[in-house]
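User: Fold this; tokens only.

Assistant: Input:
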Amino acid sequence: MSIPTPVEPGHAAAVEQDAVEGVVKYMPLVLPIAAGVLMLMLASIAVYLA
């Protein structure tokens, strides 16, 4: 385990950026687009196999 470098309490929030929190703000846009693409792909596979 590594020992983290000490950071002043006032600067701790600015230094640490959570990766999940950075992605969450884009989810309302990305999730419906990904679902639409997935539905189109599944529909095209179903038409191809029919």
